[in-house]
Amino acid sequence: MRKVRLEIAVNDEFVKPTVDAILKAAKTGDGKIGDGKIFITPLEDVIRIRTGERGSSAI
């Protein structure tokens, strides 16, 4: 089985719509193992290297 890993960073207000979109697209509906997992973890900080922006504005 081929596996793909996605890492997506979003602001708090986009967590639910992002998860909903992934669930809709990734769920095969055949009841078998392999649709994947979603891990939601907080980010302590984000830095946009090009501009030096930090925090949610850098996402």
Automatic annotation (TrEMBL):
Protein name, per record: Nitrogen regulatory protein P-II-like protein
InterPro entries membership: N-reg_PII, N-reg_PII-like_a/b, N-reg_PII/ATP_PRibTrfase_C
Domain of life: Bacteria
Gene3D superfamilies: 3.30.70.120
A Pfam family this chain is assigned to: P-II
One BP term from GO: regulation of nitrogen utilization
Lineage: Bacteria, Pseudomonadati, Spirochaetota, Spirochaetia, Leptospirales
Coiled-coil intervals: none
Gene Ontology MF annotations: ATP binding; enzyme regulator activity
Recorded GO CC terms: cytosol
Signal peptide extent: none
